């Protein structure tokens, strides 16, 4: 089920993953790359007959080229070529005309540049207009020696030679300063000093030019947005950390770079660097007075409060519950002193989340959080609290109508206020709830609704939010639902997408890892390949101890190690009663009843089955109710009451065929056929043949489901029963065929000790 606590990460300086920074301290300058961008704008303006689609692509390209890092000429021309092949030749011709000519050719270009936009192609206040005016003013302020150095840099840029000085120092570009006559006498030491301020961005292993202030902000904003919405499109953790280190080497007080380093370190679960970066972020934020400028001491205190709160969330994420609790108590104390109700509410939200992570009952804390959040008009935190209550209620077996009513009430508010993250969590939770209640059709519908929903968040950098926990949960449910129907090729495709979207080092990778292991375990068990299922038990236990114990008990039971299986089930029963996990409690009861069957204790299994039936009906768990009734029907059949057993099977058959897995459908039909065979033995002679033919037809239907799963053990049982029925009916050829198939499977499969008469 989708968790809600990850949505509570809060940073007052971040909005939608975009860093708002203006402290890098480097002004824009003229570079050969900027001249290439100007050449592109000039050619776009002077080339009138241009296809509408090409012009649209180029227009969309302008802003990223202006705001992004400097590119090599090869990279620049390749990007332009993807938009308009004709424009590449024109730009290349313009650049090489300047580079291969004389200095006056570059002077001529800057002279004719304003004329290209005289027909209102670019307004003075537009993106293109502002950029062009900025470059023209900067160029006109250059001294002759600086123009000459720029010209030499352009030549080297066009001929793919690394220039000595690819950019001019900031001081030479000041638009308000007077021209310095001594600027021509720049010695080598000054050139080396200027080159130290070139923070290089590496794209595909190629060094780039220097970062201006806007380029640095653009780089941080883009990477932060990609980390939040689509981590796979962001730079790799190691590469991004190298770039951030380069930026911080020249400007250690760049607070937002520290915060991006914190987000990047979390990707690889690096507790040391993430803690170090987070502390440095708030240290720089407080020392720079970024918030104190407008709020005085209040700005300082606010940063301090949220610094402690973020530190608590970091410890929660890494499972350091004691440190997280201490940090939360400190944040609460500081917030109370400042009378900051918003910060207090965030602290309370993390407090009940921490209690949940520790396995404690946090219902009272959550309810208090919802009430206070509603009182202070904080709908986001109130909805998070309600979703957390729904999650806890579902695990503890609250009635379905109450849970769905609570989610429906919050969904109305989410859509009104366009809270897309909460909408996604709500849909994922609804998918989990329908799945838990055994309504597979409704679960698939909710999962598809989430996956096909257009995000309400603004789409930046052509990326939509699709790497959240809600998406991972929905995809895992779809994978399990397809596996239940034997569609393992589809499951493989879903898992492949999950592995690409959520790499192993990411936060939500454990969801698909556990899902994949459970599917592989069930497949191995259905195939009777217990030696393949054993390593999956160890891996499942590493991700979820409860699921691991349950799978281990199933494997031991299949291997006829009933004593060890019984001990594990008793241990698991105690854990489930302590954690109030109703669903697992019922599954443990059913597994314990099956152990009684192995020792022919069918009568002793009845109390367990009746208790499981009462719990499943009380909590509206239709799937588990159907499974429990099938267990009861099998027990009654073994106790010699086939009439009552057939009635129970017929009562649940419709539900199983509509929502059950292939293995459940096959088991139900196989049990129905056995009940029909038992009744036929006691029937009158004139009705006996009809009853046996009906049993043969039911077995044929069951064989279809088992064959889709390639469940050879079940097929062996069916062939055995079919051979007996055809022998009684006098169908010699059909009997011989079924006998041969049974013989082949019996020789292929190892003896498990369980026969068709001793298990469901």
TrEMBL record:
Residues 30-159 form the Anaphase-promoting complex subunit 5 N-terminal domain. InterPro entries: Apc5 (IPR037679), Apc5_dom (IPR026000), Apc5_N (IPR048968), TPR-like_helical_dom_sf (IPR011990). Keywords: Cell cycle, Cell division, Cytoplasm, Cytoskeleton, Mitosis, Nucleus, Phosphoprotein, Repeat, TPR repeat, Ubl conjugation pathway. GO terms for biological process: anaphase-promoting complex-dependent catabolic process; cell division; positive regulation of mitotic metaphase/anaphase transition; protein K11-linked ubiquitination. One of its GO terms (cellular component) is spindle. It is found in: Cytoplasm, Cytoskeleton, Spindle; Nucleus. It comes from the Eukaryota. Residues 258-357, 596-652 form the Anaphase-promoting complex subunit domain. Pathway: Protein modification; protein ubiquitination. Its main location: cytoplasm. The keyword Repeat applies. PANTHER family: ANAPHASE-PROMOTING COMPLEX SUBUNIT 5. Component of the anaphase promoting complex/cyclosome (APC/C), a cell cycle-regulated E3 ubiquitin ligase that controls progression through mitosis and the G1 phase of the cell cycle. The APC/C complex acts by mediating ubiquitination and subsequent degradation of target proteins: it mainly mediates the formation of 'Lys-11'-linked polyubiquitin chains and, to a lower extent, the formation of 'Lys-48'- and 'Lys-63'-linked polyubiquitin chains. The APC/C complex catalyzes assembly of branched 'Lys-11'-/'Lys-48'-linked branched ubiquitin chains on target proteins. Belongs to the APC5 family. This is Anaphase-promoting complex subunit 5. It comes from Cyprinus carpio (Common carp).
């Amino acid at each position: 089920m989708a968790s809600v606590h990850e949505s509570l990460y809060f940073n007052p300086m971040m909005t939608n993953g975009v860093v708002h920074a203006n402290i890098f301290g480097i002004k824009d300058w003229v570079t050969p790359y900027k001249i290439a961008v100007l050449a592109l704008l000039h050619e776009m303006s002077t080339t009138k007959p241009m296809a509408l689609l090409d012009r649209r692509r180029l227009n969309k390209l302008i802003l990223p080229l202006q705001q992004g890092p400097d590119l090599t000429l090869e990279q620049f021309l390749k990007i332009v070529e993807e938009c308009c092949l004709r424009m590449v030749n024109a730009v290349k011709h313009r650049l090489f005309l300047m580079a291969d000519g004389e200095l006056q050719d570059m002077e001529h270009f800057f002279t004719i540049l304003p004329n290209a936009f005289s027909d209102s192609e670019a307004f003075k206040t537009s993106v293109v207009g502002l950029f062009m005016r900025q470059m023209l003013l900067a160029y006109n302020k250059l001294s002759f020696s600086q123009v000459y150095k720029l010209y030499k840099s352009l030549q080297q840029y066009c001929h793919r030679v690394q220039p000595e000085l690819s950019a001019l120092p900031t001081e030479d570009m000041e638009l308000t300063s007077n021209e310095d006559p001594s600027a021509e006498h720049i010695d080598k030491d000054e050139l080396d000093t200027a080159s130290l301020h070139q923070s290089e961005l590496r794209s595909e292993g190629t060094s780039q030019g220097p970062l201006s202030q806007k380029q640095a902000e653009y780089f941080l904003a883009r990477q932060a947005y990609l980390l939040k919405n689509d981590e796979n499109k962001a730079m790799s953790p190691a590469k991004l950390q190298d770039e951030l280190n380069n930026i911080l080497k020249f400007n250690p007080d760049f607070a937002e770079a520290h915060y991006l380093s914190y987000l990047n370190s979390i990707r690889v679960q690096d507790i040391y660097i993430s803690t170090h970066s987070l502390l440095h972020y708030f240290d720089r934020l407080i020392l720079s007075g970024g918030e104190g400028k407008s709020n005085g001491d209040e700005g300082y205190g606010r940063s301090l409060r949220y610094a402690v709160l973020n530190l608590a969330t970091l410890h929660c994420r890494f499972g350091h519950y004691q440190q997280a609790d201490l940090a939360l108590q400190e944040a609460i104390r500081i917030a109370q002193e400042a009378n900051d109700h918003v910060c207090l509410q965030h602290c309370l939200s993390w407090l009940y989340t921490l209690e949940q992570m520790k396995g404690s009952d946090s219902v009272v804390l959550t309810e208090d959080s919802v009430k206070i959040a509603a009182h202070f008009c904080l709908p986001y935190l109130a909805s998070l609290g309600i979703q957390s209550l729904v999650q806890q209620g579902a695990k503890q077996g609250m009635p379905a109508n109450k849970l769905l009513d609570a989610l429906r009430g919050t969904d109305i508010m989410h859509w009104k206020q366009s809270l897309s993250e909460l909408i996604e969590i709500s849909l994922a939770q609804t998918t989990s709830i329908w799945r838990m209640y055994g309504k597979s059709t409704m679960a698939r519908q909710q999962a598809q609704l989430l996956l096909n929903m257009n995000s309400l968040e603004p789409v930046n950098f052509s990326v939509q939010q699709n790497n959240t926990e809600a998406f991972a949960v929905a995809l895992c449910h779809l994978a399990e639902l397809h596996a239940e129907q034997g569609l393992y090729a589809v499951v493989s495709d879903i898992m492949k997408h999950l592995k690409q979207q959520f790499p192993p080092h990411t936060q939500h990778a454990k969801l698909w890892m556990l899902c994949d292991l459970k599917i592989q375990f069930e497949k191995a068990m259905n195939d009777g390949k217990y030696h393949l299922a054993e390593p999956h038990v160890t891996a499942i236990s590493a991700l979820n101890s409860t699921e691991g114990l349950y799978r281990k008990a199933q494997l031991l039971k299949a291997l006829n190690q009933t004593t060890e299986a019984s001990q594990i089930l008793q241990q698991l029963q105690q854990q489930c009663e302590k954690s109030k996990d109703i669903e697992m409690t019922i599954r443990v009861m059913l597994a314990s009843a099956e152990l009684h069957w192995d020792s022919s204790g069918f009568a002793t299994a009845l109390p367990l089955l009746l208790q499981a039936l009462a719990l499943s009906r009380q909590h509206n768990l239709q799937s588990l109710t159907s499974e429990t009734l099938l267990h009861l029907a099998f027990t009654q059949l073994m106790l010699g009451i086939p009439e009552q057993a057939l009635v129970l099977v017929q009562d649940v058959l419709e539900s199983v065929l509509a929502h059950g897995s292939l293995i459940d459908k096959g088991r139900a039909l196989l049990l129905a056929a056995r009940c029909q065979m038992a009744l036929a033995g006691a029937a009158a002679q004139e009705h006996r043949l009809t009853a046996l033919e009906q049993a043969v037809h039911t077995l044929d239907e069951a064989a279809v489901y088992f064959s889709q799963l390639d469940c050879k053990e079940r097929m062996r049982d069916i062939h055995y029963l079919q051979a007996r029925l055809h022998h009684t009916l006098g169908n010699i050829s059909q009997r011989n065929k079924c006998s041969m198939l049974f013989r082949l499977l019996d020789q292929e499969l190892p003896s498990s000790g369980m026969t068709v008469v001793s298990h469901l």
